Amino acid sequence: MSGTLKIGVLGSGSGSNMQSIQDAIEAGSLDARIVSVVSDVPDAGILRRAERHGLDAAYLDPAPFKTKLDGEAEARTIAHLERRGVEVVVLAGFMRIVKPGLLARFPDRVLNIHPALLPAFTGIAAWRQALDYGAKLAGCTVHFVDAGTDTGPIILQRAVPVLEDDTPESLHARIQTQEHEAYPEALRLMAAGRLRVEGRRVRILP
Questions:
Q1: What's the pLDDT score for residue 47?
Q2: pLDDT of residue 43
Q3: Among residues 42, 47, 69, 110, which one has the fewest Cβ atoms lying within 10 Å of its Cβ?
Q4: Secondary structure (3-state) at 10
Q5: Would you state the CATH architecture of domain 5-194?
Q6: Beta-bridge partner residues of 161
Q7: pLDDT for residue 3
Q8: Catalytic: which of 53, 80, 114, 180?
Q9: Active site residue 143
């Protein structure tokens, strides 16, 4: 991709990862622009954060589905993103499974961040899974999204040691610190045209 990367963000929660991306843009370390922020939750914090930065922010009704973005809701979301010229879709705490329609419209251009070192600990509350399992390392993974759950090709990972006195909350907080560095870094690589998907692997070009 050439020129400033146009990002659409989908989120359900507070939007701290969206904030880290916007901070990198404003600091001049990421050649990108968030052209739309969309939430499936009408009062989500991510929408308030977006509005504070003067970003386009919208709630799109996800009905009738509870856990996925599908059917008319998916079609509305795709149309919304297309109207705003989105090139890359960033999932930032988006608590719905995205379906083939969105993935087909943005091939190898839908990214997610997961709070574990994939392929370990997929699904929800991955930091708690790691702690309960007795893992010595946790972390986060930025990956391309595919039709599976947390199964897409890995772009980059950041490791976080699990401490003896960790609680789920303390471990999650340290993982989030790494997430806020990893997501902008992955987008910098994409904006610079340095990511190439080769089957299951993502090659980072010089």
A1: 98
A2: 96
A3: 42
A4: strand
A5: 3-Layer(aba) Sandwich (3.40)
A6: 137
A7: 74
A8: 114
A9: no
Distance CA 172, CA 126 (A): 9
pLDDT of 1 above 70? no
Interval 124-135 mean pLDDT:
97
Q: What is the largest CA-CA distance in the chain?
A: 50
- Would you say 151 and 198 are in contact if contact means Cβ atoms under 8 Å apart? no
pLDDT tens readout for residues 69-120:
999 999 999 999 999 999 999 999 999 999 999 999 999 999 999 999 999 9
Residue 39 identity = S
Domain boundaries, the chain: 5-194
Total-model pTM: 0.96
Strands 68-69 and 97-98: parallel
Please report which residue ranges of 53-145 form alpha helices under DSSP H: 71-83, 100-105, 126-133
Contact 126, 95 (CB under 8 A): no
H or E element in which residue 20 lies: helix 16-27
Q: Residue 99 has which token pair?
A: 């379906």
Residue recorded with tokens 């705003």:
84
- When pLDDT is averaged across residues 130-142 and rounded to a whole number, the result is 98
**Residue type (1 letter), 149:** T
**Count of Cβ atoms closer than 10 Å to residue 72 Cβ:** 12
In the chain, the DSSP E strands lie at 5-11, 32-39, 57-59, 68-69, 88-91, 97-98, 110-114, 137-144, 154-161, 195-198, 201-204
